[in-house]
């Protein structure tokens, strides 16, 4: 039964990863034959100023988008957990945006944040605030992408909602008998019981943020290098510059950075993640 899964892992992960490793040691311009050059591509990374720039943009986006995504999903889950007449309808409505194609979402946000006729700037005008050039201002482009990223928290919110409904009511009853109010119950019961889900969402969020590409590719050109994500720079070197070997070296760098961040997250989880089984 495990054979299809193993086969899929080999075909879609191990083989492409191995090919990327091999190509990273070559000078390959797509139209020419690969030429082995050893570690030259990796040495070039350390002297390429755009590597540091693109990593900085990606880290900045991750630093803002991952926490806001987790907080947004958690708040949405807590709201959806309230028993209302149209609760199921609200669950569907909040989840739908997360399954829309990323291009469609970006088109919607381009319309909402358009500096001339966007609904957001129209709202700012009506309350007497200055309008903003969201995607052209270097100081606003990444926060704008973070705002766009909140559009897709519905999937994580459903995971939080399922975990919240799985918490035993007796825990809240015991906390209430001890005199804990809603905020104290949230800190002492809800957060610890949801911490494994927070860990999962954190890891997935870090991996997704490090792979950000579409936003910078589709709407980041007007802000110069302020939206030069690492994946976008990798794409430019591979398909615009025809440097597949160097792009593969960049891909390996991104892979190991993401791997290290994920390992650090799991390593630190013993300090803040609560597992009920450990208490037994």
UniProtKB/TrEMBL annotation:
One of its GO terms (cellular component) is plasma membrane. It is found in: Cell membrane. Residues 55-265 form the ABC transmembrane type-1 domain. The keyword Cell membrane applies. The chain crosses the membrane at residues 59-80, 92-112, 140-163, 191-210, 216-234, 246-266. It comes from the Bacteria. CDD domains: TM_PBP2. Gene3D superfamilies: MetI-like. Keywords: Cell membrane, Membrane, Transmembrane, Transmembrane helix, Transport. One of its GO terms (biological process) is transmembrane transport. InterPro entries: ABC_transporter_permease, MetI-like, MetI-like_sf. Pfam families: BPD_transp_1. It is a multi-pass membrane protein. Its main location: membrane. The keyword Disulfide bond does not apply. Belongs to the binding-protein-dependent transport system permease family. This is Sugar ABC transporter permease. It comes from Demequina lignilytica.
């Amino acid at each position: 039964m495990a054979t299809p899964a193993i086969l899929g892992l080999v075909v879609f992960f191990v083989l492409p990863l191995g090919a990327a490793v091999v190509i990273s040691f070559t000078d390959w311009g797509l139209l020419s034959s690969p030429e082995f050059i050893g570690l030259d591509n990796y040495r070039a990374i350390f002297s390429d100023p755009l590597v540091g720039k693109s990593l900085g943009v990606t880290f900045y986006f991750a630093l803002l988008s991952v926490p806001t995504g987790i907080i947004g999903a958690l708040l949405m889950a807590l709201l959806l957990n309230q028993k209302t007449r149209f609760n199921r309808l609200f669950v569907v409505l909040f989840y739908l945006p997360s399954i829309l194609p990323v291009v469609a979402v970006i088109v919607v946000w381009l319309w909402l944040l358009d500096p001339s006729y966007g609904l957001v700037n129209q709202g700012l005008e009506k309350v007497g605030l200055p309008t903003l050039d969201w995607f052209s201002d270097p100081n606003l482009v990444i926060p704008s992408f973070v705002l766009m990223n909140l559009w897709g928290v519905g999937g994580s919110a459903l995971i939080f909602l399922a975990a919240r409904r799985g918490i035993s009511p007796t825990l809240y009853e015991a906390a209430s008998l001890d005199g804990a109010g809603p905020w104290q119950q949230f800190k002492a019961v809800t957060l610890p019981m949801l911490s494994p889900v927070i860990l999962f969402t954190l890891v997935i969020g870090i991996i997704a943020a490090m792979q950000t590409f579409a936003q910078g590719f589709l709407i980041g050109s007007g802000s110069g290098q302020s939206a030069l994500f690492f994946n976008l720079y990798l794409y430019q070197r591979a398909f615009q510059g025809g440097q597949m070997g160097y792009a593969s070296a960049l891909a390996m760098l991104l892979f190991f950075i993401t791997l290290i961040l994920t390992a650090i997250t799991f390593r630190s989880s013993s300090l803040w993640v609560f597992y009920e089984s450990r208490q037994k």
